Amino acid sequence: MRALLLTATSARRVVARARARCCYWRSSSSSTSSSTSSSTSSTSSSTGAGAGGSSGDSSERVLRVLGQEYARDNMSNVTPAVVQRMDADLLSQPSHPLAILLRHIEEYFQQDQFRHFGRCIFSSHRNMKPVVTPQQNFDSLLIPQDHPSRSPSDNYYLNKDFMLRAHTSAHQSELISSGLNAFICSGDVYRRDEIDRSHYPVFHQTEGVRLFSIDEVNKMTGSSVFAQHASRSPEHQESHTITTAQAVGRDLRTTLSGLVEHLFGPVEQRWVDCYFPFTHPSWELEILFEGEWLEVLGCGVMEQEILDAAGADNKVGWAFGLGLERLAMVLFGIPDIRLFWSKDPRFLSQFKHDAPLASIKFKPFSKYPPCNKDISFWIDDDAFSDNSFTDVVRSVAGDLAEHVALIDSFTHPKTGRRSRTFRIVYRSMDRTVTNEEINEIQEQLRKTVAHELHVELR
């Protein structure tokens, strides 16, 4: 019976996670270093506070991020461990694998086909502030108020008015409102998530947008751009003619197919229909890589309502988004997302900013044994979430935590109390950890979990 309950619980978690993520371009989601940052710091030593998170010290009323102070409230759940990552600026380090990949993406959009009268039509933006409002992160992209992706269990909130962006799409409306018609926006994004080799609370995305004027679309289609009294269909929005949607979608697919070939070389591709709140129709682009179909990016024709609100009501456009870690892990053969934060010269020396992309392949420099530990506890607080637990693990164990898995879950038939058992895989990427060292970390984790998450250890 317990196994059946675990299966049902796991299924519900998978469905909820899928619903939450359908509002984002697909990325490697995103522990943390014990070193403190000179330009970003938290005034609290707790692991966070607020709804869906761990409860911080109520005496610490202010959170300091990137030189700004934010008053805590019941939504605050940003951990000091995440704040410490905010000034890493990996994309500005020329020989970092993420920076190398981004440079090749930006170079593609500087090619002759994207130049008008000798000038590149795409501008590149890497320095947009990662602190945004929920309006920027959700409302501006038509994400419903009741959508599960807004939950504090999936996002890092500074308070009810500010949060760390969960995707670079949060800057779409801002950049369009400034008058830009074509741009690439890249940066670090933040999501609360599980702990494994492909997820990290801080990761990086690249967003691309291109808009077309009525005259440009007329030249592409020879017909009207906007529809009158039309209904939405799988092929187009209610405000677009089907020829407009087809023309914009065709330009999008041609552009992104070219980007994939620029990065991977000649490769078999396929387009899969999907759903995003901010584009319609929408697709995911997959490639056949080493015998398996791999999802590379999400994209679609931008919802006209977004453009209208941004002052571009006389234009139509497309947008795409991709996760840099996701692609870099595939292109370079990097097996663990934690390596992107490594300062080990055995890792960093393998990447040269001027090397051809196809020549860069990661060579594992060591393999250290894992150390597994389990933790079990009773849950009485309805606000508990698995992501709250993984945040505590990251805060206590840092990057020694390689994987966290829920291995048992059940509800007591008489008391109705819920129980969780997690298995934590500890492993260093650059040394052998001792059982004594991990025992100390595990004991600190048990104390912190009990205190911060208000659970009863078993």
TrEMBL record:
<keyword id="KW-0648">Protein biosynthesis</keyword>
<comment type="function">
    <text>Is responsible for the charging of tRNA(Phe) with phenylalanine in mitochondrial translation. To a lesser extent, also catalyzes direct attachment of m-Tyr (an oxidized version of Phe) to tRNA(Phe), thereby opening the way for delivery of the misacylated tRNA to the ribosome and incorporation of ROS-damaged amino acid into proteins.</text>
</comment>
<keyword id="KW-0547">Nucleotide-binding</keyword>
<keyword id="KW-0496">Mitochondrion</keyword>
<dbReference type="InterPro" id="IPR006195">
    <property type="entry name" value="aa-tRNA-synth_II"/>
</dbReference>
<dbReference type="InterPro" id="IPR036690">
    <property type="entry name" value="Fdx_antiC-bd_sf"/>
</dbReference>
<dbReference type="GO" id="GO:0006432">
    <property type="term" value="P:phenylalanyl-tRNA aminoacylation"/>
</dbReference>
<keyword id="KW-0436">Ligase</keyword>
<comment type="subunit">
    <text>Monomer.</text>
</comment>
<dbReference type="GO" id="GO:0004826">
    <property type="term" value="F:phenylalanine-tRNA ligase activity"/>
</dbReference>
<feature type="compositionally biased region" description="Low complexity">
    <location>
        <begin position="27"/>
        <end position="48"/>
    </location>
</feature>
<dbReference type="InterPro" id="IPR045864">
    <property type="entry name" value="aa-tRNA-synth_II/BPL/LPL"/>
</dbReference>
<dbReference type="GO" id="GO:0005524">
    <property type="term" value="F:ATP binding"/>
</dbReference>
<dbReference type="InterPro" id="IPR005121">
    <property type="entry name" value="Fdx_antiC-bd"/>
</dbReference>
<dbReference type="GO" id="GO:0005759">
    <property type="term" value="C:mitochondrial matrix"/>
</dbReference>
<dbReference type="InterPro" id="IPR004530">
    <property type="entry name" value="Phe-tRNA-synth_IIc_mito"/>
</dbReference>
<keyword id="KW-0067">ATP-binding</keyword>
<keyword id="KW-0007">Acetylation</keyword>
<feature type="region of interest" description="Disordered">
    <location>
        <begin position="27"/>
        <end position="59"/>
    </location>
</feature>
<protein>
    <recommendedName>
        <fullName>Phenylalanine--tRNA ligase, mitochondrial</fullName>
        <ecNumber>6.1.1.20</ecNumber>
    </recommendedName>
</protein>
<dbReference type="Pfam" id="PF01409">
    <property type="entry name" value="tRNA-synt_2d"/>
</dbReference>
<feature type="domain" description="Aminoacyl-transfer RNA synthetases class-II family profile">
    <location>
        <begin position="187"/>
        <end position="345"/>
    </location>
</feature>
<dbReference type="Pfam" id="PF03147">
    <property type="entry name" value="FDX-ACB"/>
</dbReference>
<comment type="similarity">
    <text>Belongs to the class-II aminoacyl-tRNA synthetase family.</text>
</comment>
<keyword id="KW-0030">Aminoacyl-tRNA synthetase</keyword>
<dbReference type="GO" id="GO:0000049">
    <property type="term" value="F:tRNA binding"/>
</dbReference>
<keyword id="KW-0809">Transit peptide</keyword>
<feature type="domain" description="FDX-ACB">
    <location>
        <begin position="366"/>
        <end position="458"/>
    </location>
</feature>
<dbReference type="InterPro" id="IPR002319">
    <property type="entry name" value="Phenylalanyl-tRNA_Synthase"/>
</dbReference>
